[in-house]
């Protein structure tokens, strides 16, 4: 029977990204994980509007105007809080001699750069980089895999 592997691929790719960044995977039914996926999906759809493009050029004006860009900003802040909570937990349990994941490696580098006033290794940079990995990696990788499956169906001899 026909089926759409789209959501399965998004969940699988997101979980792989989670294991690299957070050092842990989520259960596919985990409420926090599903909320994170929904927010990423909603933001992908909202980015197709002209409002985010206008926001990039006129952020001060657009902050005052209603529109889908406000929801995009709100969703990004929710994801950012989720990630900051995980970063805070990592800071509490950090073992500098045994990094578990991307966050631990970044925190170790932050500690090394502590005396450098021009260092880009900050909590804000860490959270934004993590968000970028999710936004960029989840959608593009799952769509690429989806197209790969379509090509394999069309050319089964491959």
From TrEMBL:
Cofactor(s) listed: heme
A GO term, aspect molecular function: oxidoreductase activity, acting on paired donors, with incorporation or reduction of molecular oxygen, reduced flavin or flavoprotein as one donor, and incorporation of one atom of oxygen
Top EC class, one word: oxidoreductase
InterPro entries cross-referenced by the UniProt entry: Cyt_P450 (IPR001128), Cyt_P450_E_grp-I (IPR002401), Cyt_P450_sf (IPR036396), Cytochrome_P450_fam2 (IPR050182)
Membrane topology: Peripheral membrane protein
UniProt GO cellular component terms: endoplasmic reticulum membrane
Major localization listed first in the record, in broad terms: endoplasmic reticulum
Alphabetically ordered keywords of this record: Endoplasmic reticulum, Heme, Iron, Membrane, Metal-binding, Microsome, Monooxygenase, Oxidoreductase
E.C. code: 1.14.14.1
Source species, domain of life: Eukaryota
Cell compartments where the protein resides: Endoplasmic reticulum membrane; Microsome membrane
GO biological process, one term: epoxygenase P450 pathway
PANTHER family xrefs: CYTOCHROME P450 2E1 (PTHR24300:SF356), CYTOCHROME P450 508A4-RELATED (PTHR24300)
Similarity-based family: Belongs to the cytochrome P450 family.
Protein name per its UniProtKB record: unspecific monooxygenase
Organism (species): Eubucco bourcierii
């Amino acid at each position: 029977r026909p089926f759409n592997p789209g959501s399965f691929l998004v969940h699988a790719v997101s979980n792989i990204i989670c294991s690299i960044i957070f050092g842990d995977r989520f259960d596919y039914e985990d409420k926090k994980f599903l909320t994170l996926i929904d927010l990423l999906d909603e933001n992908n759809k909202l980015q197709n509007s002209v409002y985010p493009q206008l926001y990039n050029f006129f952020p001060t004006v657009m902050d005052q105007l209603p529109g889908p860009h406000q929801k995009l900003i709100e969703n990004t802040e929710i994801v950012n809080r989720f990630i900051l909570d995980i970063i805070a937990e990592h800071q509490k349990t950090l073992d500098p001699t045994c990094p578990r994941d991307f966050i631990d490696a970044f925190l170790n580098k932050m500690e090394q750069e502590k005396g450098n006033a021009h260092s880009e290794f900050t909590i804000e940079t860490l959270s934004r980089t993590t968000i970028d990995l999710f936004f960029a990696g989840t959608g593009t990788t799952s769509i690429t895999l989806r197209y790969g499956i379509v090509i394999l169906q069309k050319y089964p001899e491959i």
